[in-house]
Amino acid sequence: xxxxxxxxxxxxxxxxxxxxxxxxxxxxxxxxxxxxxxxxxxxxxxxxxxxxxxxxxxxxxxxxxxxxxxxxxxxxxxxxxx
Length: 82
Description:
62% helix, single chain, 5 helices, mainly alpha, 82 residues
């Protein structure tokens, strides 16, 4: 399973639109355009297909945690250090 497949399955499972994914990536200061994102969801043989790199998927998953749980407050950060 490729990173593109993982991203597609998460988009469907969580009912995310492309705008939602762009917003989630912006939560971790990772910028991606709508056309770049569209290229990730194309079929592998398509002329404008783009493979999803590890960095993009990692940032999406980190942003998804913030999107679903909210930003980590200071108390939770300090509890982890102890």
